[in-house]
Amino acid sequence: MEFFQDFGLFLAKTLTLVVAALVLFSAFAALMGRERDREREQLLVKRLNDRYRDMERTIRHGMLGRRAGRRLLRQFKRETKQADKERDENRPRVFVLRFRGDIRASHVDNLRQEITAILTQARSGTDRAVVCLDSGGGLVASYGLAAAQLARLRDRKIELTVAVDRIAASGGYLMAAVANRIVAAPFAVVGSIGVVAQIPNVNRLLKRHDVDIELHTAGQFKRTLTVLGENTPEGREKFRQELEETHQLFKGYLKRYRPQLDLEKLATGEHWYGEQALPLGLVDELGTSDDLLMDMARDYDLYEIRYSKRQPLSRRITLAFESALDRVLWRNTP
Q1: Which has fewest Cβ within 10 Å: 176, 256, 268, 313?
Q2: Domain 91-192+270-334: assigned CATH number
Q3: What processes in GO biological process is this protein linked to (predicted)?
């Protein structure tokens, strides 16, 4: 009997030690995980004025002979030192962001971090922001959040310009419309103010193979259309109603930021090229992001802000697939 008591006490002590070790190991693993997460995150700041200056100097140096080139390099060094001494801390700044959107607007998590970083330094009424936008739209909630992130800049009185070199359609245009000014390349695609949804239904195929599907819901319209079950006229009508409600919200959001738009004429789901969009009021100027930024560099200090976070392999594969699907959906666009 005493043997069993001693053995039980031994097991209890061993179990206690094992549990304590597991708790310590879990705490250590969690701490290391947080450290790794911090290491994966990066906020990169690049002064674009320096980039343009270096490009100019490289071209000038390349067009001279060896002796003249050496003299020019010495001159460049003196100019750089003098410019650093005379840099005006009160000079207005432009914060440059780049957003390339896929169907899920996956970059929105980076965008929110970049804008939060800008708002810690931007001076209301003095500094500006430029977003180089390239997106054909996608999920309503995702692009609604992306547009709301850009609205944070306007709410803080930071003048916002969106530059569209290729495409800002549907959810992409929802984002662009938040800006004080939209600059589009002549053949950039803009507009597509509409909502689309499609869903396959294989119910008849399943019936032919004697497969029954049971769908139970609490709430009349918890499920309107379904892939496997039999769709009803009431479900289809409700689905169309929801699309129309989303379209009305889309138009209301555009009206808030661009009240001059004739939405009865423009909110048809059609898209236009930059040359066509200008007289319709969809954009404010024609031009490329390159010219826009180079012109601004004369009077502003330009800082490109980019937040990055290393994603796990599974996430990177998913993003690559979505990016490929996004290109397929738009590949037939002229």
Answers
A1: 313
A2: 3.90.226.10
A3: proteolysis
